[in-house]
Amino acid sequence: MFWYYLKRIGPVIALIAGLLTIVNVYWGSPFYKSKKITVDNHSERIFSLGDMRDSLYVYYRGSNGYNIWKSNVKIENTGKQPILGVGTNSVLLHDTIEINVNKQFEIISIKTIQNDLEAILDQNSNTINISFKKWKPKELLKFELLLSSKDDKISPMITGNDREILGAEIKYNNVDIAKIEEKSNDLDWLVRLKTIYPNYVFLISKYWGLILFISLFLSPIYFVISGILENVKFGKWKRKCWKTYLVELERSEIPPTEKVKYKKRPFDIPEKYRSSFTNIPPKPEEPWMLLVLPLFLYILLLPFFIYILFAWYNL
Fold it and tell me: Which of 39, 31, 29, 35 is closest to 84 using CA atoms?
């Protein structure tokens, strides 16, 4: 029965496989978003005055506030082409790439951790200007920011403007580490993964899961529709060819004891006797099977459907 069902849904699976192949080729093409920068920011509040803010404040290196934050920033050329920052072929509208921290924060200090592209970082109140000569694919720029803020409710957000880079796109992934702990245990694994893998991994997984969900959801429906159409086709054959079939059955070499069975189920006639008949219909699906099998599959796949919808909502 499994192979019979698989044969029915084969065209659907082939269509989905073809669509996935097209998507894969499109996304893998060097012409698809070939210049791309990914910015990952993991922030953590390391000091807060809390209820003492009415009587105290923090003054450090010329900055004052009630909260001190540490942000670990990783910037990577995740595209397929190098990004030129100087010369006539530079893709920068200005001399630098500008990275901003939301205005509620002030940059106290910046510490470079990894600088593959030999970039120069220049900071002011809440802006970092990055200048470089050539940024090759997969090269990383990592630095640590120390920030001050007077707002307890807002966490640092790193933003920028990808319009300043010709033909490029900048993706931002801002994570407040404290909020990870506030999530329920059911979401811990998903939130922690977001701190490890870049956004495009979750984007691909998200749409792959959606396509898989749609294909699995539609497969039983396709099975039911095909079964109904085959039963309709068998009914038409019976109205049109039944009398001719009975005459051919009586004249055939089939043993008389078996002819009674084949009067009810002409599609079960063995292949060796079929040459005696002008038209034998294909076997239609049993009516009970059209209801029971899809219902069983939906019950079986219900946890998977819930999981896919849960992941789609939270990714």
Answer: 35
